[in-house]
Amino acid sequence: MTEALLSIEGLRTVFRSGMGEIAAVDGVSLSVPRGRTLGIVGESGCGKSMLSLSVMRLVPPPGRVAAGRVLLEGRDLLTLPKAEMRDVRGREVAMIFQEPMTSLNPVHSIGDQIMEAMRAHEPRAGAAELRDRAIAALARVRIPAPERRFTEYPHQLSGGMRQRVMIAMALACSPKLLIADEPTTALDVTVQAQILDLLRELQSETGMSIILITHDLGVVAEMADEVAVMYAGRVAERGPARAIFEDPQHPYTLGLLGSIPRLDEERETLLAIEGSVPPPFALPPGCRFAPRCPFAISPCNAAPPPLRDIADAHEAACIRAPIEASLALGNAA
Amino acid sequence: MTPLLEVRDLAKHYPVKSGIVVARQVGTVRAVDGVSFAVNRGETLALVGESGCGKSTTARLALRLIEPSAGSIHFDGRDVTRIGGAALRALRRRAQIVFQDPYASLNPRLNVGDAIAEPMAVHGIGNAASRRARVEELLGLVGLAPFHAARFPHEFSGGQRQRIGIARALSMQPELIVCDEPVSALDVSIQAQVVNLLKDLQRRFGLAYLFIAHDLAVVKHVADRVAVMYLGRILEVASKRALFAAPRHPYTRALLAAIPHPDPQRRGRVTPLGGDVPSPMAIPPGCRFHTRCPAAQAICREQDPALRPLADGHQVACHLAETLPEAISDTGAGFAPAAARRLALFAKARAAV
Which segments constitute the ABC transporter domain (chain B) (predicted)? Predict the structure, then answer.
């Protein structure tokens, strides 16, 4: 197995609220291999975005990381002094978001914004040098006529171009890890295909690792080497991408796969999952998916199931996996 | 048989003005630029395309929610392009709409029962008691419970709100429902619930849907026929089977090729289309797709191709439709054996619950 660039251990991110402490991320352990892509999939409210903000130490108050470690090449980011953490952001770990329009400042030109990101980490660089490097950064994300785009403003660019600018800014200081939070969700499919292509090319050029957060199983299949499926703040299943798609173990993973209409399949009805994700202040005591799970039996409601090995590097948090063996034993629901 | 809804050469042009004291028209946004199609009773016609292609504007034009700049709209054989007053209200009873954003389309101060009953009250159908009974029936139809009528929109999840929107559209017993991206804002597991519900309601009530979407996989699941739009024009119309198995227009092919498949073995087979959609203020001359078309020839830059029939109902607006090589139908192999086996167990267990 390749050495991990980043490992997250027992991460727990909580919010104080009127109803007590709510855990948005509850005991998550994951690792990102060097030069590879970890895809984190889940529906809204599963904690996938909060997980990435926790890694960056950007959890908005009243939220805070209550427990766990985030090791970047062995250094725990959660205990770094603030000034050092500021250096890590951008230079070692960079992030891009779903909506490029709200992440860009509308009153500054594209070029100024890229140079600002560079200057923050290299205050001694000269203006001419920064300008050349910013134009090179735009060229690197395949923006046509980068010298002209350099002077333009965000509203003059299409959604796909704006996301390219965001990627150029994120990669300006050659980070080791790029966290991409739903980078193509706001884009049309043909533009999405361009951006995914670009991310793949940049990864093979630079050798950076990527954490790709998405709700789209198609995007995950297209990009990820490793996949973690999250549900209600926990990891339900994780493993190599092919194992997750070809040998899915957790009933939630199955439900997700069954819910998406596929081009290569003719079905009269989609296999929807009944009900909806439980709110974080009313989580079931046992397995969090049990109330929606057709395979749930009484032990499922007793205690949260731990992740356990199914196959090589493939783990699922389900006491009934693999389900056919479990059903054969006569533990019918 | 007369189609339920038929639009011909429909157009919507918005003037673009500039100047503070004296506003001058400096350009025209051709949002919808000559669109013709028909929706038959009980069928689903999907209008697909990327953002800015005019699909939502077309949907609103078809219901007369906005006024067309040109063209005609026929409903059940009758020209409704210029009707008003009582005649237009009568049309509204027969054709309803479900919007994309279930958060924005419900009044936060109106409880769900009143929201669903409002169209009936507006049209003067029944009295308070009979409307209440009908609301309960409608809630049951969309998978909600009678006690939900007293609750307010903020108490519901996105999927439940979309069910409320559907119940409200059904309250008029319409023949046509325009679904404007009804599942785009929902999580995948919830999306599947709503798609299944729409198909079930269609079977029970013989509804016709004009289904606006950008997701071709969803469209493949719900539609009978599909019309692909680009920059305000329909480029290809065909039965679902023909469109997905043998797309004729290069744009349709590009759209299909751009969809990421939920199968890691097929990684990297996506071939992105270059460039961006041109502005609807400056639609390219000739074929509007030629600036991005991998097959474009000289004729494509000069002559605007009309939508023309090929074979049984398949229509395409491309000069080169006959000379292009057959599309290789490359849609993958479906689920892997272990996944398929467990999905079958999942379905069986769920049916038993």
Answer: 5-256
B4 touches chain A (CB under 8 A): no
A232: left (phi over 0), alpha (psi -120 to 50) or beta: left
Which of A256-270, B101-115, B177-191, B222-236 is predicted most confidently?
Answer: B222-236
Predicted pLDDT at B311: 82
pLDDT in tens, B230-276: 999 999 999 999 999 899 999 999 998 888 888 888 777 667 787 77
- In chain B, residues with a C-beta closer than 8 Å to the C-beta of A245 are 262-264, 336, 339
Is some CB atom of chain B closer than 8 A to the CB atom of A248? yes
Among candidates A158, A221, A256 on the partner chain, residue whose Cβ is nearest the Cβ of B260: A221
8 Å CB contact of A262 and B258: no
> Which residues of chain B are within 8 Å of residue A256 when distances are taken between CB atoms?
188-189
Q: Which two tokens stand for residue A305?
A: 């199931």
How distant is the Cα of B213 from the closest Cα of chain A, in angstroms?
11
| Distance separating alpha carbons of residues B2 and A297, to the nearest angstrom | 55
- pLDDT means over runs of 10, chain A (333 residues): 83 87 91 95 87 92 92 94 92 86 86 88 86 90 88 87 89 91 86 89 94 92 94 95 94 92 77 82 90 92 92 92 83 48
Distance CA A291, CA A311 (A): 27
> How many residues in chain B?
353
Distance (Å) from the C-alpha of residue A144 to the closest C-alpha of chain B?
Answer: 10
What number of other Cβ atoms are within 10 A of residue B257's Cβ?
19
Q: Which of A222, A262, A294 sits opposite B353 (nearest CB)?
A: A294
pLDDT for the residue numbered A325? 86
d(CA A243, CA A245): 6
Number of residues assigned to chain A: 333
Domains of chain A: residue spans and CATH: 4-92+175-328 (3.40.50.300), 103-174 (no CATH)
Q: Is residue B331 scored above 70 in pLDDT?
A: no
What pLDDT does A187 receive? 83
Longest dimension (CA), chain B: 70
CATH of B1-18+27-353, one of 3.30.1330.100, 3.40.50.300, 3.40.50.720, 3.40.50.1460: 3.40.50.300
DSSP labels for A19-34? TEEEEEEEEEEEEEET
Task: Provide CB contacts within 8 A for B287, sequence distance 6+.
Answer: B293, B296, B300, B301, B303, B304, B305, B317, B318, B319
User: What residue spans define the domains of chain B?
Assistant: 1-18+27-353
Helix (H, G, I), strand (E, B) or coil at A246: helix
Contact at 8 Å (CB) between A225 and A33?
A: yes
DSSP string, A58-110: -PPTTEEEEEEEEEETTEEGGGS-HHHHHHHHHHTEEEE-S-HHHHS-TTS-H
Give residue B217's pLDDT: 86
Strand intervals (E) in chain B: 5-18, 24-39, 44-48, 70-75, 78-79, 95-98, 176-180, 208-213, 225-230, 233-239, 308-311, 314-316
